[in-house]
Structures are given as C-alpha cells and as structure tokens.
Design brief:
The termini are far apart. A hairpin with a 2-residue loop joins strand 12 and strand 13. By secondary structure, the chain is of the alpha+beta class.
C-alpha cells in the first residue's frame, strides 16, 4: 500500500477519498485554488498545496502544477476523483513519466474510452451491442443532416469527449438541428477542449442503467451489480438507486455480462462504470441483447458510487488504492453479495423553478441529516458556492433492507434538510421521492418531463408559513425591546397583548400584516394589496385575510396550532428574507426593511434579466430586429452549460447591454425588449 497520495480534486470526492486513505493509514495531500483555501477537503488532508487562481483552468486543470505538488510532498500516487483531470490521458501519461502512480486505468484505456465514438467502435468489435448512430470523423453539417435523417428523429447529439450532461442535445425536428448542433459543439469545446459530436438514436422512454466494475489490469474484471440513473434533469443525474427496480432477470443478467465484457475488452484497471440504455419496449431477447445497449464507459469513480457500496458493503476507493498499488482484487465475483437497497439524492445549489439554473451565494444555514443518512459533502455552513465549480452541496445516501425502507429513509432525510442563503433542489427531490410512480419504480429518462405538474406545483400551506414568519418577527420585536422573547412567547413575561406590524410579500404583491397577541396566542390580519401589475390595471385591494393561531417554543423551532392542526416550523435568515421550513417545503417571506426592494426587484416591463451569474457567449439578434416569441436572443454560459435567453413575446429588440465575453451578475439587465402591439 502507498505511504502518501495526493488527491487532485476538491469538494466531496476529495473528502471521500481522504476518509478511506486515513482508515488505511495512508497520508494525504490536498490541492486547492484561491477560492478553496479554507474548504473542507483542505482540512481533511494531512498536507495542502496551493495550485492557482479560482478558475479551474488556472488550478485544478493545470496538471503540471499538480505533478509538481506531488513531487514536492513525496506523494507516491495521485487519485484524480471525478471530473477535472480524472479522464485525461495526457495527465496519466505525465504522471507515469514522472514515476508517480495514477490511481485509475492506463492512459491507453482512457484514450480508447475517452472518445465516445472510438469507444462505440471498440465495443462493437468486441460484440457489445450499441445504439444506432453516427460517430464518424466527418463533422460537416451536411453529414450530420444526412445521418440524422438516416437514423430518424428524434436523435441525441453528444460531445464525443463529454460527460455530466455537457454537450448533449435532443433534436426533435430537422429544422432545429443547425442551432442545437452548434450549441453542442460549443459546450464540448468549452468543457473538454474538443468540439466533435456524435449522434445516437434517441429512445424517449429509455432507462439509464449502469454497471459498476473493478478490474486488476490483467484481464480479471468483477461487477458490483447495477444502478438505475434514469431520473435526470438536463441530461444530468440527480437521483440514483441500486439495484435497478422492476428489471427482468434476463435483462439484469445481460447488463452484468455487458459490463464485464466491456471491461475485459480493454483489460480494465481500477474502478469504472459501463453505462447502458435499456429500451423496455424492445422485444425481449431481440438479437440476444434484451434491449440493452452500450452507451459509454466512464474511466473513473462515478458520483453515484455510494449506492453500489451500500448494497455490497464494499469500499470502492479502497479497492482503487489496492489495485493501483499492485494488489490482487480483494474479492472474487461470487464473494460479492447484494444486500438490500440504496438511494442517493444529489443536493445541488440550483433553482428547479428556473430551469435548474445554478444558484450562487453563501450557505447561511446548512443542516444535513447525518443521523439517518450517509452524507458525502465537501462544503460547510458559511461557505460560498461560487460560479467556478459544480454546484453540488452534498449527496444524501440511504440504505434499507427493501426498496420501500430505503426510500422512506430518503424522504425522511430530505424533510430534515435545511439550506438557506441560496436556492436548492431539496424540495424538488422530496417531491420526486414521494411521487407515486417513482415509489412504484416506474421510471425513465423522461420522468421529470412527464411528471412536471406534480414536481413543479406551487407549494401549499403558505398561510402556515406566514404564521411562523410573523411569530418570528413578533419575537424579534420583543427581543429588541429587551428580555427573553422565548419566555414572552411561553407567557411568562407578557402581561398584556402586544402589537407588531410587518410587511410580507404574498406571491409578488407586498402586503401589510398586523399581529396582535400575547401569552402565546396571536391574531393576524393581512391587508393584501393588489400586485403592481394589478394596480396599473386599476384593480382594487383584496379583502383582509384574518386568521388566528397559537405558538410555542420547540427547541430551535416554533410549534404552531391553527385551523385544528399543529405543525412545527423553523425560521431562518435567507439573504434579506425569512425562510420558513415546514416539513420538506419552504417559503420565503419578505422583511419590512426591504419593502422597496420587494417593490422593485422584478424585471422592468419589456426587459430580460440574467437568471444567474455567467458569461455572455453569443448574441443571436441585433437592435431593431423584429422577432417571434421563443426566438433565442442571447446565449450565456454558467458552469459550462449554455442557457438561451429567449423572447417572451413577439416584439422588437431595442438594445443589448452586454457583448460576448462579458461577465454578468444574477439579475443584470441583458436585453431591452418591446412587445408588439
């Protein structure tokens, strides 16, 4: 076993690798950028070396700096984690030339599998079934036009060097090919330095299944059963499970066979994943493939590897280290047992209600349910999620004897997850895990699209959140006047009813709430004003909304009884508002001191604002152009993904406020736009 290794990564995977290394008695070296000087992965390692500025291209992708750090610290091997340099054959070659072990497959294997097109060619020669498509060297538009027509729409464009959903576009109609092909090529170039694209037949209700393998580099390959990663947004996984539900035995067996055969075809060394598409509509046994098709091999540890660990009681990072150190595989295939079920939910700093756009900001509150779930995280409360790296906050992993038990634990864990300071997908994940079809295991790659009405429905129970926020506001008022507000709430110091007035923001319409009460009992009258748009149209104010409730302290929470029901809420500061958590739902209630902000926060009529921080990459129109609703006016990039800014109505472009290459902040005015009469 190695004496010391360097971990060429950041975030949760660097913390994860350091944990196993520490258990094995292996010293660890972290590398960090300017943005990560105080990050958890730096604290998790024995040593740390600064390697550059915050942008990955100036730090985590500069492999000469990483190799220099390994030499200076005496590291015998480098673990690449996932992303960054984990699938870079030049990095593996450079380490080999420096006499440092790369904890992963050989450079030759990475090279062979790194190009999706070359990998498909190799797998076809090895007898592994692949999806119909085109992966040729001719990258002209005419060739893509011809090949897409031959394959038949819809088709899927994929960056040949891609991963993580970057450079992937579904083309439904021939007329959309030119624009989406150009976008896929740009994303591939920006993310991987390679703008080549391949085409595959798109299977609308496919399942995305994958097999975890480990090989010794000498021809021996074992599998750790399969994972189902079908539920995705923007072609990126957000929830995974092992084993795959509702899978016929013949399909499961064929899947494992494909995984092992793919590994043996390249004498695979280390941990890898063979990703496949399964078409449930394919005739069973057609061609002997059971409707299973090879997509790609990821020559690294996957984000979702914990679910395989949970059902096999195996530490895959330990296996990586042992194989890289020249040891034999710790177990034979028949010794690897499947036990129970596991789920992983990826908690991201993103806004599901804004097309899952990344959310940037400081984690003012971060409470993760470590008592009931395995938490793999590389951030901590107070840390800032920046635009430089992947916006993952944590992976929430649960295990149970049955799928129902593991899923129930996942739902409970998500109910206890509390994040403020930025937007997250926690509520969305809980809704997904609670959905009836998901609970039944009826999943596909179009699951989110097909269940959007349920998953994106407005949160119910805002009146309860208002009660909690106003209670908190009432307590803040009492606290400012002196004394213990919790004692006041419990009735020990209040001798007469108190009054408190607070502004709230009711779905975009600022309102004033008057709270009267004492001894833990309150009455509320909300004078709801018409929205700004409504006032322009001369709408009258709605009648006041009146309700009563009682409140009591419950640890850090507030226990409220109203309308014959009792519930617990937690109220925390969320930027300039109060974020109220009730179960898995949360609501943002405005403060009185930002009333002017609430009135002016929305985009001015006839303008388009940046939905997130990013860089303008393309201007698709000109001032004075008359365009139709839905026309792409501008393209911006955030976290290596492109986001199209489209015309909300038929109208005329008045002006652009930025040019390609400009950095923009969340909310910046991008385009002045005039709606057609």
């Amino acid at each position: 076993m190695f004496r010391k290794i360097l971990i060429a990564n950041r975030g949760e995977i660097a913390v994860r690798v350091a944990k196993t290394a520490r258990r094995l008695g292996v010293e660890t070296v972290a590398v960090y950028s300017d943005a990560d000087a105080n990050a958890p992965h730096v604290k998790a390692c024995d040593e740390a070396v600064h390697i550059g500025a915050a942008p990955a291209a100036e730090s985590y992708l500069r492999f000469e700096k990483i190799i220099d750090a390994a030499k200076k610290t005496g590291a015998e091997a480098v673990h690449p984690g996932y992303g960054f340099l984990s699938e870079n054959e030049k990095f593996a070659d450079a380490l080999d030339a420096a006499g440092i072990v790369f904890i992963g497959p050989t450079a030759e294997t990475i090279r062979a599998m790194g190009s999706k097109s070359a990998a498909k060619d190799l797998m076809e020669k090895a007898g592994v079934p692949t999806t119909p498509g085109y992966q040729g060297e001719d990258q002209s538009y005419a060739t893509f036009e011809r090949e897409c027509a031959r394959i038949g729409y819809p088709v899927l464009l994929k960056a040949t060097a891609g991963g993580g959903g970057k450079g992937m576009k579904v083309v439904e109609r021939a007329k959309d090919l030119a624009e989406l092909l150009a976008s896929a090529q740009r994303e591939g170039k920006n993310s991987f330095g390679d703008d080549r694209v391949l085409v595959e037949k798109y299977i609308p209700r496919a399942r995305h299944l994958e097999v975890q393998i480990v090989g010794d580099g000498k021809g021996e390959v074992v599998h750790f059963f399969e994972r189902d990663c079908s539920v995705q947004r923007r072609h990126q996984k957000i929830i995974e499970e092992a084993p795959a539900p509702r899978l016929p035995a013949a399909v499961r067996a064929r899947l494992h066979e494909i995984g092992v055969n793919a590994g043996k075809a390249v004498a695979y060394r280390g941990a890898g994943t063979v990703e496949c598409l399964y078409d449930p509509g394919s005739p069973s046994g057609a061609g002997g493939d059971e409707g299973v098709y090879f997509m790609e091999m990821n020559t690294r540890l996957q984000v979702e590897h914990p679910v395989s660990e949970e059902i096999t009681a195996v530490d895959l990072v330990e296996w990586q280290l042992r194989v890289a150190a020249g040891e034999r595989l710790p177990k034979k295939q028949e010794e690897i047992r499947e036990n129970g079920w596991a789920f992983e939910a990826r908690l991201y700093a993103e806004n599901p209600d804004n097309n899952f756009a990344p959310s940037i900001g400081a984690l003012s509150t971060l409470r993760l349910p470590a008592e009931i779930a395995r938490i793999d995280s590389g951030v901590e409360e107070g840390q800032t999620i920046t635009p430089f790296y992947d916006p993952m906050i944590a992976k929430i992993i649960t295990h149970g004897k049955t799928r129902e038990e593991a899923l129930a634990r996942l739902r409970a864990a998500l109910r206890q997850t509390r994040v403020a300071g930025l937007e997250t997908n926690a509520r969305f994940l809980h809704r997904l895990a609670s959905d009836e079809d998901f609970a039944a295991g009826d999943v596909s790659t179009r699951y989110i699209e097909e269940h959007s009405n349920t998953l994106f429905a407005p949160a119910a129970g805002r009146e309860r959140a208002i009660a909690a926020a106003l209670t908190r506001r009432h307590l803040d008022t009492l606290s400012a006047a002196g004394g213990d507000p919790w004692e006041a709430l419990n009735g020990f110091r209040l001798n007469k009813p108190a009054k408190s007035v607070a502004w709230i923001d009711e779905d975009g319409a600022p309102s004033i709430a008057r709270v009267t009460g004492g001894m833990g009992a309150f009455n509320v009258e909300i004078d709801a004003g018409a929205s700004a748009a409504g006032r322009r149209k001369g709408e009258e104010r709605a009648a006041p909304n009146r309700f009563g409730f009682s409140a009591a302290r419950d640890g850090e929470d507030i226990r409220i009884s109203m309308n014959g029901e009792t519930f617990t809420a937690r109220v925390v500061d969320h930027n300039a508002v109060k974020r109220v958590f009730i179960g898995a739902e949360y609501f943002d209630i405005e403060h009185p001191d930002i009333l002017s902000g609430a009135l002016g926060a929305h985009s001015a009529e006839g303008s388009l604002n940046a939905p997130m921080p990013g860089v303008v990459t393309l201007i698709k129109a000109a001032a004075g152009d008359r365009v139709e609703a839905g026309a792409v006016l501008l393209v911006m990039e955030a976290m290596k993904m492109e986001h199209a800014i489209k015309a909300p109505h038929d109208g005329v472009v008045k002006s652009f406020r930025f040019k390609p290459g400009d950095q923009v902040k969340d909310g910046d005015l991008l385009v002045e736009f005039e709606e057609s009469e």
